[in-house]
Specification:
It is a single chain. With 394 residues, the protein is α/β, with parallel strands linked by helices. It has 14 helices and 17 strands. The strands form 5 sheets. It has a 7-stranded mixed beta sheet, with helices on both faces. The chain is globular, with a radius of gyration of 22 Å. Bound molecules: pyridoxal-5'-phosphate (PLP).
Length: 394
């Protein structure tokens, strides 16, 4: 059974908002999705009913937090089909998840990290500033180039799954297999794939997988770092402190088992519990349905506007991302005009992928990103407004 956006939209209070008598049309979900009432209620439940810390207190409220956190971790395990709940580390976003690996993975001088040429800054800068390792780059999506850049020194392949810039995807299953045959570890930046397609971690066999809660209906400032148990256990201590050790003396310490040893200090309990509810919600509507719905919307926009705008990618599969330019208009101008004319909210700029735009002598793009709560009618309005914009220019 497919999904019913009209019915699901009722779960999103923000979608009742009207500006100048017109509804808002939110097409910036690649940045942050909207949140359903179930997630908002879950966050409120934490603050109203058990607003205390987890994993420390023996009292009833503390125990309730522990139960809710354990529940959330189980939801993540099931959703991503991982082996163990403790393979999920709570972070504040994809950026932090990747930084943990960049700083905690045991590198030796001469090691190399291989990334694509379409990485978000959060999977680029860590490797640029890291001393003693080489940072190599292959052309996104190009398996032959990927193979040719993989060397015996490649300790880690750190690669984006779906690009936030144009919605295209790397063939990561194939890449993971090739990397493992080369004895390289693999970290997947799943910020734009986890919310939009099924991720089966057992089948994919990635060593690490990073994603952001706020891009998948969760509270802002939430993220996950998945790591295979043996890989997480093998990381160097990086962020350490309260909750990461079972005990310590003035000169010694004894680490806690996973996941605690990688989750220092008090956590964003409301965020984690809210993210559990968000992932449960996504699981119920099924990622396959979301993927199909987004593809339909994107096809409709592409069929109508493919010759009207300059698309960054004409690839058939671009998830829910429609990234484009219009001659003689800057991306920011396009975004402001759409917002002013019809409350259409899109993103504009370099989308933190400056490196790719620089390579192609471009400054950026306008990017509409659709999710399951977007409707065909909204796409019709988007098409109409873009055509009007274009007409004014000629
Ligand atoms: C592909 C990709 N990677 C990483 C990030 C960084 O995510 P966050 O800002 O949540 O850390 C984003 C955010 O847009 C992204 O789209």
């Amino acid at each position: 059974m497919g999904l019913n956006p009209e019915k699901l939209r009722k779960d999103f209070p923000i979608l009742d908002t009207k500006v100048k008598g017109r509804p808002i049309i939110y097409m910036d979900s690649a940045c942050q999705t909207l949140r359903p009432i179930q997630v908002i209620n879950k966050i409120n439940e934490y603050y109203n009913e058990y607003p205390v810390c987890g994993d420390r207190s023996q009292h009833k409220l503390g125990k309730r937090v522990d139960e809710e956190i354990a529940k959330a971790r189980k939801i993540f395990r099931k959703f991503f089909n991982a082996k163990h709940s403790e393979e999920f580390i709570f972070t504040k976003n994809t950026t932090e998840s990747i930084n943990i690996i960049a700083n905690a993975l045991k590198f030796k001088p001469g090691d190399a990290v291989l990334c694509s040429d379409k990485e978000h800054n959060s999977n680029l800068l860590q490797w640029q500033i890291k001393k003693d390792i080489k940072h190599n780059i292959f052309e996104f999506g190009n398996i032959e180039d990927f193979k040719s850049k993989l060397t015996k020194n490649t300790r880690l392949v750190s690669v984006v799954h779906t690009s936030n810039m144009d919605g295209t995807s790397n063939p990561i299953k194939e890449m993971i297999k090739i990397a493992h045959d080369n004895e390289s570890l693999v970290l997947i930046d799943g910020a734009q794939s986890a919310p939009h397609r099924e991720i089966n971690l057992k089948k994919l066999d990635a060593d690490f997988f990073a994603c952001s809660g706020h891009k998948m209906l969760g509270p802002s400032g939430t993220g996950l770092l998945f790591g295979k148990k043996e890989q997480l256990e093998n990381l160097n201590p990086f962020l350490v402190g309260g909750g990461t050790v079972e005990e310590s003396t003035y000169t010694t310490h004894h680490w806690e088992p996973l996941p605690n040893r990688i989750e220092p200090g008090l956590q964003n309990y409301a965020g984690i519990i809210g993210l559990g509810e968000a992932v449960h919600y996504l699981d119920k509507i099924r990622l396959k349905n979301i993927q199909k719905h987004e593809a339909n919307l994107n096809k409709k926009a592409t069929d109508a506007l493919g010759d009207v705008v300059d698309l960054i990618s004409k690839d058939q599969e671009r998830a829910g991302i429609f990234s484009f330019n219009i001659k003689n208009l800057t991306p920011h101008n396009i975004a402001i005009m759409l917002d002013n004319s019809a409350n259409i909210m899109i993103r504009s700029g370099a989308h933190c992928v400056h490196s790719w735009f620089n390579k192609h002598n471009m400054t950026g793009s306008a990017r509409a990103s659709f999710y399951f709560y977007n409707t065909e009618e909204e796409i019709d309005i988007f098409i109409e407004e873009i055509k009007k914009l274009r007409k004014h220019l000629t």
